[in-house]
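During the second half of the funding period, the structural biology subgroup turned its attention to how the target accommodates small molecules. The most pressing case was coproporphyrinogen I, which had performed well in the primary screen but for which no bound structure existed. We therefore specified the complex as follows and requested a full 3D prediction, including the ligand pose.
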Amino acid sequence: MTKTILSALAGQTLPVPPIWMMRQAGRYLPEYRATREKAGDFLTLCYTPELAAEVTLQPIRRYGFDAAILFADILLLPQALGADLWFVTGEGPRLSTITTAAGLAALKPADAIDETLAPVYETVRILARALPRETTLIGFAGAPWTVATYMVAGRGTPDQGPAHALKAADRATFQGLIDLLTEATVGYLSAQVAAGAEVVKLFDSWAGSLRGQDFDDFAMAPAKRIIAELKARHPGLPVIAFPREAGARYTGFARATGADCVALDNSVSAEWAAANVQKDGCVQGNLDPALLVAGGERLVSETRRVVRAFSGGPHIFNLGHGITPDADPDNVQRMIDAVRE
Ligand code: 1CP
């Protein structure tokens, strides 16, 4: 039996698209909140393999999604490179900042990450054994630009201003940080694959703030290098790329980077993306996550619209961004029923 997610990633058009959801293990689920409380804090949850595997499995048990995504965070990699990382309750992540050549030089080399990240690989090994045989296991990492925006600013920022400022003021240091992250990301994802991940996804959540040549240099070039290196080490490995809010730059992204699937946010229309992005291969995403809060008839009609728009080619049903903590778990089931009806 071939797993439906892998068939779609290989370019097959299926009668019913396989489904998973960004942030499917998360605070909208009472069982997640219970395990998170047991762990005490978010990073302990990420680094305790039994608990990280448990929250990964929760949405699979509840909804039978076609893929499970490893429970971890894109900011574990900077921590493994030597940055300090902590989470402020109700606010989000905080990191020590990298703003100078000396700060960059003080980070660990790319091949030193496994010491910190070994528990993540153990989570992958547990999941590879525990998942139902029809469920695909997805590993992931942040793309270098997005991870760099957090490392330079020390936190999430609305406009990625500090990273843009460093890129303008000291291009060599900024490029050095991107190069280090590119190399470390290859090692990190490769180790996830060795542990049992069947697909990997690169989250470039802040790709939309890169303009013109910067998009080529910092969103496309690192993705292309990472994908080429991963496919050289793991022939046939499918890769999903998510250059969020790339807009017109979604066109040609798969061809330029070698990605097997492009994940779409909800700022582009499904009809536009079907004509311009899906013509090159599998697409995923696009449903507005706010619909899972609101529910109602629009949730059903918009779900059907996304399914219909992408029905002529390879498609994995997903959201345009992560499900939010205030989403109603019953609305997730309504969405799944509307896809599979
Ligand atoms: O309180 C909590 O429980 C923490 C909330 C949370 C969760 C559930 C964070 C903190 N990270 C995660 C898990 C997570 N993060 C996953 C796990 C698997 C799943 O999808 O179920 C994944 C894939 C991520 C990826 C991630 N982390 C991204 C890329 C995707 C995206 O949403 O754009 C980013 C930008 C992060 C950073 C991060 N981690 C957590 C928060 C709140 C943030 C965003 C911070 C900010 O920009 O302000």
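Two results from this model are relevant to the next phase. The radius of gyration is 19 Å. The beta strands are 67-69, 85-88, 92-95, 136-142, 199-204, 239-243, 261-264, 282-285, 315-316.
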